[in-house]
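#struct-help
A.M.: can someone run this one for me? Single chain, 248 residues.
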Amino acid sequence: MADTNQQSPPPQLGPVQFLMSNKLETAMWLSRLFTVYCSVMFILPVLGPYAAANFYQRALLANALTSALRLHQRLPRFQLSRAFLAQALQEDSCHYLLYSLILVNSYPITMSIFPVFLFSLLHATTYTKKVLDSMGPSSLMFIRNLLDKLSSNQQNILKFIACNEIFLMPATVFMLFSGQGSLLLPFIYYRFLTLRYTSRRNPYCRTLFTELRILLEHLIMKPACPAFFRKMCLSSIAFISRLAPTGV
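D.P.: on it. Structure tokens below:
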């Protein structure tokens, strides 16, 4: 006799139950949304320059919190050892924890907020889709379409983030000579940039360095380029190449 008993599918969790059942992911989602909000309020200073500076610090502190939670998720067992530190420095979340701590007390510039803003936006998009799924497969289609459009441009956004990471290096030097940055800022930021260059999960910084070098070499090799400018660019390329980490 055939078994007619069929197992019913598990009941779908509502949005509140879904959020409570994934507390760590929910905490990171909320901190990322707060980072996005503070970043927008800094980029669009509708409340004045003083409030914008406060939002700049809040965005970086919220990103530091998100990065610390993500690092704890990736490496839950903390160990006071050189091996653990080396493993932690390979994580992108550790990179942006350092990034936030480096820049949180620096002079606020828009270029430095774009990476935390866009990374938070991209990562929040993925979890927001899961929250919408818990509300129903057809819930809030307008927001779903916006999230899909954002996800479809992920590669261009990551390249833009890498571009900001790279050009922040000369910006820190300019801030030093203009009296808006500390003496240690360029050296500490250079260390961050080397970590991004050697990142295993996000190769866009390394790729963009290569693309910029190829583009510049193509431009300066044209006959119309003055010889002194070509020599200066080639010397700059050689200097930056010597600074690049080896064994990547």
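A.M.: thanks! Residues 44 and 229 are 38 Å apart (CA to CA).
D.P.: also worth noting: The chain has a mean pLDDT of 86.
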